[in-house]
Amino acid sequence: MYGLKLISLGLYLLTLTHSDGKKIVMFPGFGKSYFIYHANIGQALIDLGHEVWICVPEYLSDKNLIKYKDIKILKFGETIGDVESHVLKNSKMLDNFWDGKDVGLSELLMTAKEFRKFINIVLDDQSFFDNVKNIKPDLLVIDEFMFIRNIFVLPYKLGIPFAAVGYSQDLVLHRVPFSPAVEPQVPEKVNNRMSFMQRLSLTIKTVFELSYDPFTDSDIVTRIAPEKPYTTISDIILKAEIFIAEVDHILDYPRPMLPNTKLIGGSSVSEPKPLIGEFKQFVEKSTNGIVVVSFGGNDIPFPSHIISKLMSAFKQLDLDVVWRVNVTSPVPGKVKTSQWIPQNDLLGHPKTKVFVSHCGKNGQYEALYHAVPILCLPIYGDQFYNSERIRFKGFGLGEDIRKITPEELITTIKELASNNKYKRHIEKASKLFKELYKVPSKEAAYWIDHVMKYGGDYMRSSGQEMPLYQFLLLDVIAFIAAVLSGVVVIFILIVRFCYRRFFTKRTVKKKKE
User: Fold this and answer.
1) CA-CA-CA-CA torsion sign (365, 341, 288, 356)
2) How many angstroms separate the CA atoms of 42 and 35, rounded?
3) Local confidence band at 430 (pLDDT 50, 70, 90 cut-offs)
4) 3-class SS of residue 295
5) Around Cβ 7, how many Cβ atoms within 10 Å?
């Protein structure tokens, strides 16, 4: 009888848990790496009793990006094709990089234009809106990836509350009071100890961002939600219940933040699972340790001479190498190549000495979590900013993949593997990260769950509700300028009046004399 009562109580509590569950639809950025941390947050939300859907573009639907079976998939974008490949090709970002040119403003604007083209195809598809609406979500979780900001018209049109998740904290967009003197921004290749010229450059960039938005279409709300009052995408984003930023004060620099922004670190990190199969065999037979090499989930096309250079260096190392690349290794016993590697599990293995990476967000955080020094070989986007950050904090080194020679590559990897200062710095940071941020995906899920219960209005700053000109005090500055101008004009008139009066009297007096 007592056992039946316990079972009944358990079933009752289970019913209560599921009755409180909400429906959540997540929209990651276009790119394989975005699905990793969205899926981790999604599973953490499921563990809290919610139902989670993740929007996956058709071209990625067969890539098995979502590893959790309880997460439901909402496919979209049948006609958009492979967005990543199209953007990299049409923006000429990679071509220019391999030709030795630095990626500048023109490449950025072209990339923004290409992304807007694809996201607008999605927004013009009424079936996409209908599919999201039919789920009847209680909350949308949208990636704040700057190139897909137009997607924020979705919650505005459907009238659904939303949370914003981003790989960085956008101080300008979120209306956070800050100083360009100490707050380096992606993709600047600077740290938070800037020279005068770097501070000048960042200030100009900030003014540019405040006055011009190349990432959104000014008519997107009018076109997609004509039944709604006109507003801008920037103003819509400010209505987010909460901002979840995939950054922290350990890997990144200390930054100001508002109460409705939560810095959670990297949601892609997790404890390593034991290696299995061929990876287990390869690592176990390594006597001196291994180097893990990966340039992210995107299949970046490398010139043949770059591949040859890397392979030449790896073959000469006294460490064994596991390299994620679509190339057959000439020395499989020394350099293991594969189109997929268990990156997190390899980085968590005690035999791993160095991580060679393009320095993307997920890989950085996994290396930080497992305290593995990093050799950064950045290629595009935020990777140059990330590389400088790793170097500045003593977690690793950065090099130019185009210019470094095989001999220099060997020397640099040996330096990271043998010089204990890099390991010491990143081990301390790893301990801090684990103590302060614990499990980032669960922290993100907690705050998303929190705002679904209580809303986020109580954390919203008044600066996020006022027009931009008021936030920037342009009206106050204009008033002060007008008053000062008036005072100056009056002063000039008084001086002129006194001068004429005095000068005229003296002139008349002299004439009489």
Assistant:
1) negative
2) 10
3) very high
4) coil
5) 10
